[in-house]
Amino acid sequence: MLYFIVLEGNYGQTVGKMAVKIKVVREDGTKIDYTAAVVRNVLRVIDLIPYFIPYLLGAILIWTSDKKQRLGDRVAHTIVVKA
């Protein structure tokens, strides 16, 4: 989890996000900070529920969101965009 928090808080991207050319920003398009990175990544655990289909809840939340946000993004007021 520290990996995601440090890289997203510092660069808005993990190595995987860099490879697919996406990044995390605030809803207003500005750079996220460590607080937003912590919030969105701590709530990643909830997206894993139910554990027999990992990230099913996260996928459902993305599908039902106008901004395509999972729970962590909704609470942290962040979105994932093309880099």
Q: What is the topological layout?
A:
Layout: H1 2-11, H2 15-19, E1 22-26, H3 34-42, H4 44-47, H5 56-63, H6 71-76, E2 78-82
Antiparallel strand pairs: 1-2
Helix pairs in contact: 1-3
Notes on the structure:
Helices cover 51% and strands 12% of the residues. It has 6 helices and 2 strands. Strands 1-2 form a two-stranded antiparallel ribbon. The chain is globular. The mean pLDDT is 94.
| Mean of all residue-level pLDDT scores | 94
Strand order of the largest sheet: 1-2
Task: Tell me the radius of gyration.
Answer: 12 Å
Helix content: 40-55%
Q: Helix/strand/pairing class, anyone? A: alpha+beta
Q: Which percent band covers the strand fraction?
A: 5-15%
Please provide the ordered H/E string of secondary-structure elements.
HHEHHHHE
Q: End-to-end distance, in Å?
A: 22 Å
SS summary, helix count: 6
